[in-house]
Records
---
Amino acid sequence: MTRRLPGWLVALVTGVFVLLHLPVLVLVAYSFNASRYSADWSGFTLHWYARLLERPDILRALRLSLTVATVATVLATVLGTLVALGLARSGFRGKRMVEGGLYLPIVTPEIVTGISLLILFVAVRVPLGVGTVIVAHTAFCLPFVAVVVLARLRGMDRSLEEAALILGADEATAFRRVTLPLLAPGIMAGALLAFTLSLDDFVITFFVAGPGGTTLPVLVYSMVRRGIEPTINAVSAVLVLLTSLTVALAARVGGERGA
Amino acid sequence: MSIRRRLLGFFARRPAAGAWALLGPGLLWLLLFFAIPLAVLIGYSVLHRGTYGGVSPGFTLEHYRRFSDPIYLAVAARTLRIALATTGLCLLLGYPVAYVIARAGRWRNALLFLVILPFWTSFLVRTYAMIVLLRTGGVINSVLMGLGVTGAPLDLLYTPGAVVAGLVYGYLPFMILPIYASLERLDLDLLDAAEALGARAWSRFRRVTLPLSLPGVAAGSLLVFIPALGAFLTPDLLGGAKTMMLGNLVQNQFGPARNWPFGSAVSFALMVVVFAGLMVWLRVRDAEGEA
């Protein structure tokens, strides 16, 4: 296919790509801007990052975000992988309904999920805090993990597992030595997806956090509401860096799978 | 060992039981922390309002009747307008991008990566980045004033336009990817045939490429329209008080307005619309699968 693309089209698309990436690039650039109030560039500084280290609330929120993301990822990955295995390995009545049902939490507006969890926790008198945040994050990450692992299971060659069984391995051994290693990249991809979803979530966390559950996005939101200041640029840049690292890790895992 | 043997034997004899043992914990979690909360929310929407938030007993449909109040109709209409404008703009900007990527040859993967990349940046951070660009002392105003285009800063933030801009920025990849997927599958021989038969570039596009990419357009439009309808953070940060959408109305009822049943009713209405949209999308996808 060697049809040439018209110049105006290439220009338009280049413009869209710039629009798609400019805001975050500008934000990161301004986290190094010495000027406190104006958008004018008045020199490079690391001052705002140094300020982050003096703010115990930011460091606490960062630590809480990482803790919540880690615990929720482990829970969601284990439960989600089991769900995927249950769905892939059997044909029972209602299976299609369960599969379709997995998409419900994915498409439900976050505000509805958050509000309904808030109602539940208040109704059964569970105090809001780290616990409720972890429970909520596990719930919204689980379907994503299940869907990703299920996709991997569907693409997998079952004959290898059958060969192991024929060669005398019992089911548990065949699962541990054959199925699980083949499934590992899918589980890893699901886990990394869950980790970034949890790390980034604001809306659901906002409703179930309570005073003790201030994750980094919730803190950034309250800082933005209080007034724009350069420290927010620096925290945002840290958040971007954290998810970028996760994605880079995901890309590496994906690369090894390809090799 | 013998217990494990016996368990394995049990599950081997009853595969359905084995499946449910695997599904059980995960589905229980989703039942407890997704399905039951939703059911409680729907239940709350037909109860009386409690004095300090919460609910008091007694069945009523008054919260659903309140939808006909002009104030709330205006919020619903604005939500619909903003979601439609977002979808339209995403289509206008996203289709050319998808088209170019599908024809980009060896650049294809790099360009796709650039489309997916923003997904990995926190939505909150991206919304905040729009504030940095749009606010009175922000980057755009300072560039415009530096160039002498405008003497005084423009009011870009806290307008419906800012909300649409934020939503387009947030959801554009959802539009690009499905359109790309349907364009990528397009049989190029059809275009060669059209050309051989004398169709010019524009008519080749309008009569061959466009109709064949319509399933992608439909999927992309729904993937943008659905989250735009339920938007909360974007209008909250970029819209200000005059650009309230349904998502903000919900939050308001659980916050300062302290009308939990009404907030629940609005949430439920929002979900019904979203699921109707999803059903349409599944139909479209299945139809595409058969084609």
---
Amino acid sequence: MSERILSKRFDLADSHTIGVYEATGGYATARRVLQELTPAQVTDEVKKSNLRGRGGAGFPTGLKWSFIPKDTDRPVYLCVNADESEPGTFKDRHIMEKDPHLLLEGIIISAFAIGCHQAYIYIRGEYIPQIRRLRAAIQEAYGRGCLGRRVFGSGFDLEVAVYTGAGAYICGEETALLESLEGKKGYPRLKPPFPAVVGLYGCPTIINNVETLANVPAILEKGGDWYAAVGAHRSGGTRLFGVSGHVIRPGVYERPMGYSLKQLIFEDAGGILDGRALKAVIPGGSSVPVLRADEIDIALDFESVATAGSMLGSAGVIVMHDGTCMVRALQRLIHFYKDESCGQCSPCREGTGWLLKIINRIIRGDGRPEDVAVMRDVAEGILGNTICPLGDAAAMPVISFVTKFRDEFEHYIRHKRSAVPAPVK
Amino acid sequence: MDKFTVTINGHTIEAKPGQSVLQTALDNGIHIPHYCFHPGLPVAGNCRMCLVEIEGVPKLQIACGTTVRDGMVVWSNNDRVRQAVRHVLEFLLINHPVDCPVCDQAGECGLQDYYMLVGRYDSRFAENKVVKHKKATPIGRWVMLDQERCILCSRCVRFTREITKTNEMAIFNRGDHAEIDVFPGGELRNRYSANIVDICPVGALTCRDFRFRCRVWYLKQAPSICPGCARGCNIAIHFNPERPHHAGGRRVLRFKPRPNPHVNAFWLCDDGRYSYPFIDDHRLRFAALREEGGVRQLYLKDALDRLADWLRASRSGRTAYLLSADSSNEELFAARKLLRDALGVRCLLPDTGLRTGDADDFLICEDKHPNTRGARILFGLGENDPVAPDRLEAGLGAELPELLLVNRADLPSPLRDKLLAAGTRLVFLGTNDNATAAAAHLVVPLVVFAEQAGTFTNFEGRVQKFELAVPPLGDAAPEWSVHQGLAERLGIDLAFPGPAAIFRQLTAEVDAFRGLSHESLTPHGAMIRHE
């Protein structure tokens, strides 16, 4: 297979230990960067690499770093978003479990680039083995002088602390994450001001996803141009695609940006379970618009998926075969977003609850002909009108499901049962 | 300075850099619907009612959280914005009980107002509404909570966090089960609690004192000044001129704060707010004369005849007057002209309103009279000249007066008994009944501040105007007209056409007030000249 940047140590025994990490070239890049480069050179290299945020929004990482005000007299913080809670997404856990030092090396280089001396890893509370691995790795790194005062003997200090969340989806939203980290209720903040200017404790803060930071050592090792060339369009590098659902071999696959979705499902993941036909794919975590089986002949980079009317998001590819009842599938999704809505702003708080009540009623057999139109309209009332993207995340699946599978919804309402014979649970 | 302009709905207006789009629109008479925004609180941006379209920005933006930029073009009335705002209002209403017929907020409710402005659709909500925990539950001495009417704008939470810093309230739970409440086992324990009723845009927080006494559309308002302490918070007196039977005969039903950035911002303390019942309760309506055989009611003119006779009869230097710091500047000035200047009466200011230690670093002052500063200026008194009640006797001089006029104050009972035993004629000029009024030889009924126009001078020296709200009760008269009546009877030339004319005369004669006029007192009052 092609380049493996993130998963190259996943198959090694004891890949999570610093011994294996260093023996396979680990920390050499960070050591060199701290001794030879300036922070501006690091940021430039990352800009050149076309590295884009792996959390879901795909914001160019180098550009984000450059928003830190120059010559600020306040401390700069780096927050690592390890809250991975998007349904269908399970990539960051593999990095933290199998190669935590790769993340730490990425943190060291990135913190150096932005002038940060205190980094926090905000990790979801359910990731207990990963929390243990991370803490052990941090301890190892401190012991070998990779963290703490005078990292690698340079003049650069860096402390890293792990903070565990309590399992709220909303705390993966970057500003809610900051609130939670400050010990408050996880309510997203209004933007502007953006965290790069006013972030954690009111100080300039960069929030990057685990996978994003794990790419940084390779970029500095082999160069931004090399990394950009691995990907496609303006999406550099590889991605960890988490394939789940009705496939024969679900799992995490590292593939370059621009890889074929069809190939990913039918070759890498071994095709559809039970020899059935593909019905739909959600290509980037549960929040993004669904694609019908006839829409999946696309390349997996930010631009191509957007052209197809969906989003690459967190690259959690959820595959559904023809035994799936789309009404029930959407019910699961709405239930999730309704449950996880923080309740701060009106459209998301009230709209998600309303949507769930409608779809529950349809499934109970009390659907009304106007329900599909009302659902779509409610979702459109949420879309774009909320403080944070959770509202959009709830609305986009609804709009795409009821538009692309309208017949199924109407069938359910008319006949009080699913259009799919014996749907899978 | 560069001109800084924004265009809202096609109107180009000058804007202040750093201001929000919403504030700019409101300042220029363009109403953008909003719930969570309040000019006295930090921006929350959670209600999403003030969504506007800003040219060049793809998504709709909240006007409260968007700072104006030079040349910005904003639309709050196009189809896209209207549609979004209708959606938001619909979201806010789906779980609202719509119990307007039994809701005390009806008539001054943001949901009703905006439904009429941007809503006017039939409900599409066919589901069961969310049931919350607390309906009509008291959360403090003055405030009633109904969680189901709440739209979670968080104004009350922000008020207790940012203004009183007492943090009694929070939003509990999440999603559509989120609800405002006080912490378990707690209650509102700040002295400004009823402000959260004012700022609640819906019927979630209502006033336990005002609830169900009167529908708000029967109320009229008059701008006034709170008489509760020396701060002089700006208020509106809400009164019910037509239907006093709705509130057990009370005409005035509540005080609401009126914004004044120099005095009280947007707020009012509970003590001041709920001081209003004295306007209607236990009032002295008619003059009364104590004679052998009991008390006899008499016409005000007859009472003034009697008082004039007594003033004539009292020997020089043996008449004293206890001023009141509840009197307006105009009333005090009339007393000064007649009693001090023309008749040479000894005038003392008792400090009966002083509650030492009862002050905070926000609005509440120790001095519970609204016009101590005015009284001190007009009678040339220093800061320590007001007399404590236990030192009044000494203050009255070596010999007890033959004639003592008491304005409003309740004398300490030992002094009162001593005066009566010594044969002092006790005249009570006042608004409300008390033990001194009951013991006085003559009672002259005065109007309260709400029954006349005038000015108070607050503790900082800010002169502020109040307007007449309700007509005098019975024969009650403004103090200045009592003095004028006495002057006529005593052959002293003292003619006051009304409070406005007195104020003009006052500003001409008293240095500290020189240069002030009713115009200069609008809208936020004006400072006296440095004493």
